[in-house]
Amino acid sequence: MTDIGYVRSDIVDARPAPNRTSGPVAWMRTNLFSTPFDTVLTVLGILFLLWVVPPLYGFFFGNAVGPNGTVEECRMINAGACWAYISSEMEFFIYGFYDIPEQWRPNIVFALGALLLTPLLIPRMPFKRTNIVLFLVIYPILSYFLLAGGVFGLKVIPTEKWGGLLVTLIISVIGITLSFPLGIILALGRQSQMPIIKTVCVGFIELIRAVPLITILFMASIMLPLFMPQGTTVDKFLRALVGVTLFTSAYMAEVVRGGLQAIPRGQYEAAESLGMGYWQRMWFIILPQALKHVIPGIVNSFIALFKDTSLVYIVGMKDLLEAVKTKNDSALEWQSANTATTGYLFAAMVFWVFCFGMSRYSIYMENRLNTGYKR
Amino acid sequence: MSQPSETTVERSINTSHMQISQTDVAIDVINMHKWYGDFHVLRDINLRVMSGERIVIAGPSGSGKSTLIRCVNRLEEHQEGQIIVNGTELTADLKRIDDVRREVGMVFQHFNLFPHLTILQNLTLAPIWVRGTPKAEAEATAMHYLERVKIPEQAHKFPGQLSGGQQQRVAIARSLCMQPKIMLFDEPTSALDPEMVKEVLEVMISLAEEGMTMICVTHEMGFARQVANRVIFMDQGQIIEQNEPEAFFSNPQHERTKLFLSQILH
Question: In order of start, what are the domains of chain A with their CATH numbers?
Fold first, then answer.
């Protein structure tokens, strides 16, 4: 008869995991050549890179005409990208038809924006409340008068003359800062138990989401004046701004609603049982958690908005892309095989830098806010 | 059958300062009915809880125990009859509901701490914003109650970093920070590991010793026997039987009660 009783006499202490073989060879073995199939893929991948990278390098750098080059160099047979075209037309790409002697005004707006936005985005920086007031209240007013002029002896510059990156940035920054709160309010309204509020919000969201942005911009620029009394005009820049904001807020509302639905019922109940009112519950308990859940979706909407600003050409605004296109078509003195391509590449790179920045910042924010479940 | 099989907390309660004032009605439920759609969950509930009384509600699952105490702070709405808490009748009037909720603490089965806030913020949020207590004072009160539930060292952690028992003790402390007159417990130990049940029950017993008015929905019959003034047995949305714990456990009257007790006490 075997003895099935057992008592452990000594406790096994935890010890460190055995050392893995490390170094570049081990890394390649696990990541590149772990199976025959992986080896084939690795070889194919390397061949693909060898095929693609050298010509790309040649186009962008090797054969490219630098910022100080001439149009004659750009017209040579083997010439790559014509960066000289970009640098010579840079002013138009940034400011559009904004009067050249007055370009210090948008420059101040750019600088002030960067100066106020940077500390706002860095969590460690103090004076957040002052910073928010400055950025959301003082800065827009100041920027408007600086850009439009008409006060303090500043020359009036109508919005028709604004263009390029200036327009792209203004529409996206204003669109983002307005559509975010608007979207939250719409999402909360959609969950409201008050039938009128709920119906209005659902109707608005479903109407806007079911229509392409181009249609909304068309409506704003062509249909709206028909309904307005004779003689009243709404600035087309403002119309585009309102169109883009409303459009994004409808999408934002649905993203936020997704976050609201992820919050367990118990969170609402705990807040209620402490006697917190509706707005207190939303502000302190529900929204911080819900918004954290949907940061990727929110940033997705922001990025979409940023890129959709190029559709304002519909109402005759010259945003960055439209400014590039205008010059591509009209700058005869820069005509060459690669001029237009270089122009569009430049626009793409600018868009990419901003969108990639937003994306990275959102990942940083996600990690930072991931306190609730951190162990 | 008289031996409670649940976790028994070895502590006797000093009954001398636990005199119940017969004049102070804390909660009065009168002919109350509630439906979920067509389903009649609570039927003809009549329950008067005196100030300082400790009531344990027992019963099979689906009998309406939780629904009943959730009606007391209007997390659920009743359709007929009256519920009067601290002299305020619960109606659709939102202000009155918030007034009642301020005086009634609630502890949930799944703790429902706010995961994005630290323990200290969990405790001070409602006092600061609902009661208007200055921040420093609210934090002092919070630390006081954290010491009472024996986890002051966790004040700056997040709920996700605490064990279930610790989270539930924080949840109790959070309710206490609002200085409530009544505490409702909705199966506070049901989601806990067996080893953690005791630490939560100890906190609840010490609350009872201080004369807090309590209604506890629980399956901890040892706790009921030791602490309750009255045990209420519910089935099918009705109060089937109520009695002092000794009589309730040793001499149940209703057939359903006998069956229930025979199932849970071995």
Answer: 83-98+157-369 (1.10.3720.10)
